[in-house]
Amino acid sequence: MNARTRVLTGITTTGTPHLGNYVGAIRPALRLAQRPDVEAFFFLADYHALIKCEDPERIARSRLEIAATWLACGLDPLRVVFYRQSDIPEIPELAWLLSCVTGKGLMNRAHAYKAAVDANIAQREDADAGISMGLYGYPVLMAADILLFGAQQVPVGRDQVQHIEMARDIAQRFNHLYGGGEALLALPDAVVDEDVATLPGLDGRKMSKSYDNTIPLFAGGAKALREAVAKIVTDARAPGEPKEPGSNALLPIYRAIAGTAEADAYAAALRGGMAWGEAKVRLAARIEQEIAPLRERYEALLAEPARIEAALREGARKARASATPLLQKLRAAAGLRAPHTDAPAAPARSATGGARSGRFVTFRAHDGGFHFRFLAADGTDLLLSVPFDAPKAAADWVNVLEKAGGETSFVWGREGLNLRAEDTVAGPIVALWFGAERLAESGPQAGAAARDALLDRVVRELESRWRALRGG
Ligand code: TRP
Hints:
The chain is α/β, with parallel strands linked by helices. It has three domains: about 210 residues, Rossmann fold, CATH 3.40.50.620; about 80 residues, Tyrosyl-Transfer RNA Synthetase (Orthogonal Bundle); about 130 residues, PH-domain like (Roll), CATH 2.30.29. About 50% of the residues lie in helices and about 15% in strands. It is built from 17 helices and eleven strands. The protein is globular, with a radius of gyration of 27 Å. It binds tryptophan (TRP). Tryptophan binds next to strand 1 and helix 8.
């Protein structure tokens, strides 16, 4: 039913975004996410950030700034599943399963690790000096990021292509060992966008934090932007003298921001003798025109971090709902079956199934379909099932749902059971799924906050129901 292509990419949360990140990564990713045939998963790779940075304050600040940047640049959290890697415990869990099927030799070949070893050797250090297991296993964690969500396409920079290839290798190995002929894990493809401009920095080399030649995106406001542009290196041609427009970073940056037609006019003005100083003022003003409204949103978001947090929490909820059924399947395939699978059935409901806990009821609706409802202890209607064509089908599902309570606690998505916050045309709702089967949902709620409160309530009521069934 889902014909959309699942596109996933991670954003390492180190540093502060610059104009090159905006043009080369943020803008193209957000354009891609707008396409109706794309289902986008974008996440903050903050576990990966820990590999590169051991300063907790910087990690925390960068995570917040980068989330705010993407939201300010137009990421719509209702459309894109936008989350933090560290909010998804299933990712490190899968990373471990994958580690156990990943050859050490494969990791020895990773570029980032090899570069670190080479640098050590060049400095006559021990080959592995300062190299953590995090750096060494980086590609495994990245494979987990991708494979957990069945991503089909992974937009990345050139330097990351090897990691996607490794994710494919690891997935194939897992499938071969545990799939019994089934492709448990989907093989992702790297997508490297050849059209995306890599923006030159102030000195004409690729704009990059490591060259210290960046133009900040938001940091420091319009003033910092003007000052950075003023530092773009040009030749010494005087005002009035014809300039070679392609001889420095001004024109490519102008083109990336304003498009070809305006950039052609800008180039013509340079050929006609526009002073470098004037060209810089015009470029800074054009960038400012583009990013001022985004910066305003960025600052508003940073002033209210709770809004960012709410968006990320909701994203994590959606991401986990999507991930847990697959992880459960992978665990089982590797021999880690849920311990309660063979547990005796829950005690008969008559003993304790009274009105002090929530309960399921089955009934026939006037449309002729058979349904179940889940009612709270106080009788509030929480969930209504989809229609089934036989009373037994509705009763069987109730039975399954009540047995789920044989677990010691309700774990999201274990055994395929999960509750999700969803947005429908009618409004925000809570939906109950079992694997790929959509079983029941709440009525539309007055806003996402009301829906989230309902979601918490449904979880509590289910847990109390299960406790009651166990006689607890
Ligand atoms: N390693 C990527 C980078 O440095 C970030 C990243 C982490 C990522 N996990 C990912 C990218 C999964 C794509 C998919 O750019």
